[in-house]
TrEMBL record:
Coiled coil: none annotated. It comes from the Eukaryota. GO terms for molecular function: carboxy-lyase activity; pyridoxal phosphate binding. Its cofactor is pyridoxal 5'-phosphate. Signal peptide: none annotated. This is Tyrosine decarboxylase. It holds the Pfam family Pyridoxal_deC. InterPro entries: Aromatic_deC (IPR010977), PyrdxlP-dep_de-COase (IPR002129), PyrdxlP-dep_Trfase (IPR015424), PyrdxlP-dep_Trfase_major (IPR015421), PyrdxlP-dep_Trfase_small (IPR015422). The lineage of its organism: Eukaryota, Viridiplantae, Streptophyta, Embryophyta, Tracheophyta. Belongs to the group II decarboxylase family. It comes from Digitaria exilis. GO terms for biological process: amino acid metabolic process; carboxylic acid metabolic process. Keywords: Decarboxylase, Lyase, Pyridoxal phosphate.
Length: 505
């Protein structure tokens, strides 16, 4: 099919064209996933501005056939991508995709409803309340965080959004007690040196002075978890200075090392000082559907909010972040708006909610508009079930255990911190001394592996040491891919050591 005639009207939702185009895209993606392991995991030797040189300076005047567009994707776009769904992608944390996640995404995008008010799409809003309770029950969350127990949940786009929302709720709760907004200069937020940097960003966004964000050091002795004693010491100093403890983050599965903070102990400190306790389980929360990992959430009943990202390790395509709160009232009072133009959609013509149980999710998030994420997560849960999803998690944990044992058995390497979940942090440890020299060798090793295109990993720095991270969790990743990357690492270690004129052990 060629370009449309100049005077031909476009038919954006013609059912026949919709079906034809959708089939073409599905076939294109099926071919991509069949061959994804043939692409270099990370695009190599690309300079910034490459795509601008390949594409025209202006948008086309006339529409083009979809097959031409897809051919350009194949030729110009795919070579410049980092292939997050490659089975040899071990960087950052996994960003899962699945057939069920894609089907749910198609339903979400295809129906294209905007459930910001209950009345704007009642079934979409109600499905979300059902799905977040399903997820909470799978993770073993207490009833006080679920709709069934007086709390409730919402699907955000990311942890960053969830953090800003909970910080705003905590801020307003505290300011109401302190008598006014001018007291914001007294509010203090606490996190560890392993906590994700988004909490510092979120604190700035809600008006907390940067000097009132406390980054509390951790150590190897605690597995780089945040200790209650360390928090108490910092909080006591702040209170003695007339400051007001506001918000404490406990992380289950930190980004750098997979460390776990003791939720119960931190929760008790938070309760003692009236702080909001948030539990960030963005990555590792998915593992809590397995009974053997739910112990890491011990004490979560003390939390004011909990978040985890199904789009990381739960086979749910981007974007989807579950946020649960014990007091929806505190969240909605900080985030709600009620303009006149949203009052004319109620069933009784008054703008009042048709029932006490109706949820207006616009008041649970930053933006007004929102996607129908619930149907995507619902399809994933329906298609794979708890048993299938637990198997998905356990398969990657088993592979990580294998890799950890392999690293520990090779005297040239060391496991930097004991593995938790499916993240292994390690480094090459030659016999010579000097941290700078060892760091340089590990930088070279990581670069050498990534430059092959056969795998992609990222690093972290802890206690001044450069550490390589292997994060296992891709939907297509199997044990054989982990074995392959270990073989690649061993080979490149020999080359790096020889190139630096050091002998391998």
């Amino acid at each position: 099919m060629g370009s449309l005639p100049l005077d031909a009207p476009i038919l954006p939702l013609d059912p026949e064209s919709f079906a034809d185009d959708s089939r073409a895209v599905v076939d294109f993606l099926a071919e991509y996933y069949r061959d994804v392991d043939k692409y270099p995991v990370r695009a190599a030797d690309l300079e910034p501005g490459r795509l601008r040189k390949l594409l025209p300076d202006t948008a086309p005047e006339l529409g083009e056939p979809l097959e031409h567009v897809l051919e350009d994707v194949r030729r110009d776009i795919l070579p410049g991508l980092t292939h997050w769904q490659s089975p040899s992608f071990f960087a950052y944390f996994p960003m899962n995709a699945s057939a069920a996640g894609f089907a749910g995404e198609m339903l979400s995008v295809g129906l294209n409803v905007v459930p910001f008010l209950w009345a704007a799409s009642p079934a979409a809003a109600e499905l979300e309340t059902v799905v977040v309770d399903w997820m909470g029950n799978l993770l073993g969350l207490p009833r006080r965080l679920l709709f069934s127990g007086g709390g409730g949940g919402v699907l955000q786009g990311s942890t960053c959004e969830a953090v800003v929302c909970t910080l705003a709720a905590a801020r307003d709760r505290a300011l109401a007690k302190l008598g006014g907004h001018e007291a914001i200069m007294k509010l203090v937020v606490y996190a560890s040196d392993q906590t994700h940097a988004t909490f510092q960003k979120g604190a700035r966004l809600v008006g907390i002075p940067p000097d009132n964000f406390r980054v509390i050091p951790t150590s190897a002795a605690s597995g780089y978890g945040l200790t209650a004693d360390a928090v108490r010491a910092v909080v006591d100093r702040d209170v003695a200075s007339g400051l007001v403890p506001l918000y404490l983050c406990a992380t289950v599965g930190t980004t750098g090392l997979g460390a776990v903070d003791p939720v119960r102990e931190l929760g008790e400190v938070a309760r003692r000082h009236g702080m909001w306790l948030h539990v960030d389980a963005a990555y590792a929360g998915s593992a809590a559907i397995c009974p053997e990992f739910q112990g890491y959430l011990d004490g979560v009943e003390l939390a004011d909010s909990v978040s985890m990202n199904p789009h990381k390790w739960f086979l749910t395509n981007m974007d989807c972040c579950c946020l649960w709160v014990a007091s929806p009232r505190h969240l909605t009072s900080a985030l709600s708006t009620n303009p006149e133009y949203l009052k004319n959609v109620g069933t009784n013509g008054t703008g009042n909610k048709p029932a006490a149980a109706a949820i207006d999710y616009k008041d649970w998030q930053i933006s007004l508009s929102r996607r129908f994420r619930a149907i995507k997560l619902w399809v994933v849960l329906r298609r794979y079930g708890a048993v299938g999803l637990r198997g998905h998690i356990r398969r990657h944990v088993t592979a990580a255990k294998w890799f950890e044992r392999a690293v520990a058995a090779d005297e040239r390497f060391e496991v930097v911190v004991p593995r938790r979940f499916s993240l292994v942090c390690f480094r090459l440890q030659p016999r010579w001394s000097g941290d700078d020299a060892v760091d340089d060798v590990n930088r070279e090793l990581l670069a050498a592996v990534n430059e092959t295109g056969r795998a992609f990993m990222t690093h972290f720095v802890v206690d001044g040491k450069f550490v390589i991270r292997l994060a296992i969790g891709g939907a297509m990743t199997e044990l054989r891919h982990v074995m392959d990357v270990w073989e690649l690492l061993q080979g490149k270690a020999v080359e790096v050591l020889q190139a630096t004129r050091y002998n391998k052990v």
